[in-house]
Batch of 2 targets.
Target 1
Amino acid sequence: MRLLNKICLITGAAQGIGLATALKFVREGAHVVVADLKPAAVDAAVTACLAAAQAAGSGSQVIGQALNVTDRAQVDAAVAAVLARFGRLDVLVNNAGITQDARLQKMTLAQFDAVIDVNLRGVFHCAQAVADTMVAQGAGVILNASSVVGIYGNFGQTNYAAAKFGVIGFTKTWSRELGPKGVRVNAVAPGFVETPILATVPEKVLDSMRADVPLRRLGQPEEIANVYAFLASDEASYINGTVIEVAGGLTV
Ligand code: NAD
């Protein structure tokens, strides 16, 4: 159990990659705070994680936390609640994210702002809210969800690409600022992964995505969760400031 007794806060953990990561973390022995927008979805995810913990015999505690990462007061309250309960915070996974796609000429300011607010500002809020604690501990891990779109851009994703490029900038900056204090910061850049975020993508486009990937398929949420678990663990103790692409060779 590579994450035994580590206290981990995962945002956007009610479904998709975040839920797969929460499930993986409890199987690895972590105590996990499942944070997401809707209380009912959070409760369902907590139930699933507790079942996984029991099946794995990990003894993990799993806590649900209703949280909108765009609301700084909520983020501060969520981190305070984790500290009140566990007394420390070892791992933050900044996973919450949304898309609102449109070409440059069609994108509304509301679409632009919504995606920047969650995918960029939300990551900033959460990292800033945990940084003092991790520095005081002299240890901690911050993992950020970027994307291959944050490496080479994507048609129709001005807002999303800007945020995901920005997340890589955060990662490199924070790894320099916090590395000397014992805190590692890394990003994961998934390719196209089968989660509800792809629900609005037409099947024809999904087929062309599959064709572009040397492995000829979309990724599974568990394949991203595995990388988060490795990066969160002490096995990754000398990995800092990197972006790990998990994309089936998409960018080769
Ligand atoms: P998803 O839509 O399945 O899940 C995202 C979760 O984030 C949802 O549960 C949602 O409620 C939550 N969320 C949204 N806004 C929030 C907010 N303001 N506060 C708290 N929670 C919020 O998405 P996913 O595919 O699992 O993606 C997870 C992360 O991985 C995102 O950051 C996404 O950009 C990134 N990513 C996904 C893919 C992919 O192909 N699926 C590829 C690259 C990167």
Target 2
Amino acid sequence: MTLKLGVIGTGAIGQEHIRRCSKVLQGATVVAVSDINLEGAKAALTRLGLQAEVYANGHDVVNSPEVDAVLVTSWDPTHEEYTLAAIAAGKPVFCEKPLALSAEGCRRIVDAEIKFGKRLVQVGFMRPYDTGYRALKKVITDGEIGEPLMLHCAHRNPTVPESYTTDMAITNTLIHELDVLRWLTNDDYKTVQVVFPRVTSKSHARLKDPQIVLFETQKGIRIDVEIFVNCAYGYDIQCEVVGEEGIAKLPEPSAVQMRKSAQLATSILTDWKDRFIDAYDVELQAFINDVRSGNLSGPSAWDGYAASVAADACLKAQNSGAIEQVELPPRPAFYDKA
Ligand code: NAD
Ligand code: NAI
Ligand code: ISE
């Protein structure tokens, strides 16, 4: 039976996910959408050549009898409300990152899901589905570089809009590393400090850019992540793991190398949509398949919560300048893998 999806939020990634669920992936169809920008939602469907019910309110999407499962792709501050509504309706929900704007908000989702008694939530952390990150994890778990000691990472966007502020470097951008590095190292964060270098002239008054975030993990691994969202030159994700016996680096996206005009050049992508296009396909196909078979297995509400606990500590560290503790409670047995 085809899974009927309702999508809340038809902006950049909402449109991408509607396109892939309708035209690329198997086993699903989009039957309803909503956006506070109603005309934008209608225009998106027209552009994609699709027909679906358009609702003015996201709760109408959740509660429509036509909708089997929900995708939340609206702005970050709306995620908690719609995810809680989907759980209340007993419907599976794929929620884009962050699951909520605070650990407290994520905890409300975790508690609601446990009370419901069955996993309903998958968080849109797509990097664990990326072939490069998967290959890097295999090198580590196969013991090829020995125990990891240090990680050097960078998360660079060419530019961000004026609405993007200093805290969003953590809650909207670093949140990907907060999830994927836990997964990669099979470890949890212990402390964090945020350091602000000289601000780029390409930023604005409400955004300190770049930032350097320094972690110590429970096992004693040291991690540095550079977040630089006005780096100008491209969309660039770096991750280098220094182990006891060698170094493993996240592969670069494949690109043709050119010798031309006395230069050796390889182009760099400029958009997250292209950098992780395959990972988004794989994560959403996994969600569709898991909902149809009745058991969700992707990034869980607990993973969303764990990332947000670390994010809250990063926000505190941004303001204090001090080394802050990351205190993650033990994981409930409910989230143990079957
Ligand atoms: P966007 O600004 O293009 O889209 C946001 C949409 O939300 C807009 O269409 C806006 O009208 C709508 N919206 C805002 N408030 C609303 C409300 N109250 N009710 C209904 N609709 C509302 O942003 P985007 O780039 O598509 O990002 C959307 C979400 O996806 C964000 O949470 C972002 O963090 C996440 N995202 C994830 C990735 C990823 O790599 N996983 C990439 C991009 C964005
Ligand atoms: P966007 O701003 O392009 O789109 C968001 C859309 O949601 C807008 O159209 C907005 O009108 C709509 N929206 C906001 N509140 C809403 C509400 N209450 N009900 C219905 N619609 C609402 O943003 P973008 O880039 O598409 O990001 C959307 C979400 O996806 C964000 O949470 C973001 O963090 C996440 N995201 C994830 C990415 C990833 O790599 N996993 C990449 C980009 C975004
Ligand atoms: C965006 O929302 C994403 O999730 C992208 O993957 C990230 O690189 C970017 O910084 C965010 O704004």
